[in-house]
What does this fold into?
Amino acid sequence: MNKITLIALALMASATSFAQTTLWNGEDKELGTSNTGVWDRCAPEVVENPSKAGVNTSDKCLKFTITGTDWNNGNTAFGLPTGTSFSSKRLSLKIKKDDNTNVRVELTFKEGENNVYKKVAAWYDGAGEWRTLYFDFSTNNASDAPTEIAIYPTTDNVDGEKVVYVDDIQIEDLPKVGDTNLADVAGGSLTGNIKLSGAWLKGECQNADGEWQKVEYDDFKTLNSKLSTNVTSVDMRGTVTKNVDIAQFFKNPNTIVYADAAYEHANVVVGGKAANVVLTDANAFAIPENFTAASVKLTRAMREDINSFVLPFWVNPDELGATELATYYKKSEGNNVTFVKKDMTIGVDANVPFITCDVAADKAGDNMTLNFADKGFVATPTEFDGAFKGVYAPQSAKGFYGIDTDGNLHKGGDGATINAFHAYYQPAGSAEAPANISFVNETTGISAVTTTSTSANGAVYDLSGRRVAASLAAAKLAKGIYVVNGKKVAVK
It folds into this structure.
């Protein structure tokens, strides 16, 4: 690049202070002052934005008039301050012109006493409207300290004069996961809830140093290679994005993506709301903050009668095809674990482990899809209090006590597993292992009361959960209602 007169050198923000390094914009840069690096080439002017819509709503922008494609008549140029960081190798700008052509950016780097020029072109298809173009210099050995930049708004011959507007010339920040550059993250190492920052881009341009060669860049595909199947949420709010490939976030199908814009995919939360959420008990789930969902689908195994559950939202029995739901009460006398049945209208709150009772036959199966509407998801707790614990990630169940469909508890051995959205019982320390479950404080009107039968087996409890007899046959009980094997019976 042959240098004309440098009007003034830009005093620009460093890349370490901002997500992007602004090389020029019309809002706070003027010609002929100490905060601009625009050269006196092609009649540059700071003017009112002629089209404040869509991509660029700024009040001001840079206008210049080209009469050819050579270095003197076909480009605008800038001087860059010493130490300008270009570690991301990505540059973007907004441009508006009448014809659709390639736009070429040329950066100058110092190598000793010599200048080295690196050129990248990107296609403009705006036909008179503002467009943001991205230029990736990662394939042409561009160094980290450019000194000058030239923008050629066309690589075609120019007849007469053409007016071109540019704005928001930026060096993009590196894409990061947390505080780590994406390139430095080990493959398959990401897990749990992750936060993205910087510029996340997908597209193509042309390395124009010699024979043009297509350059493809895809930060989303690269991120996918860094994800494990245990990533449960991705927060991409506040990132700079281009052509987001939303499907790349879902190596774990239960992943929840917090975004600034809606995408055609389940599990995307925008402004605290998701259109639809699709979950499976075969993968991990966890969220760092609340949101609402208009539609929810959960796939998991369902048995008739008793199933263990934990869900990130409130639920009632009808939604699970059950007659009743019950939450953990305590370990009672006689080697039983007691549960409290919940009123149909009260249901069970988010993140509270519970069991179902009497699930309808048409709701039972190995891979049932449960449907919910208008649910409020609540952030996942780090741990569960009490002896009955929820599970939000598939894991080994060795030593855990699961509940079978008849209400009996079984200790998991080698090879036993438990899926997400289930629950298990775990006695404290060396406490006696329970054998089965029973119910206390059942809500009136939910379950039927049966007449006393002295042939009924099982310990007898009053409605406060206290054991009053080993069995009905052996007891002389006062008139009233008792609980035997999880069912109410009336003694007359």
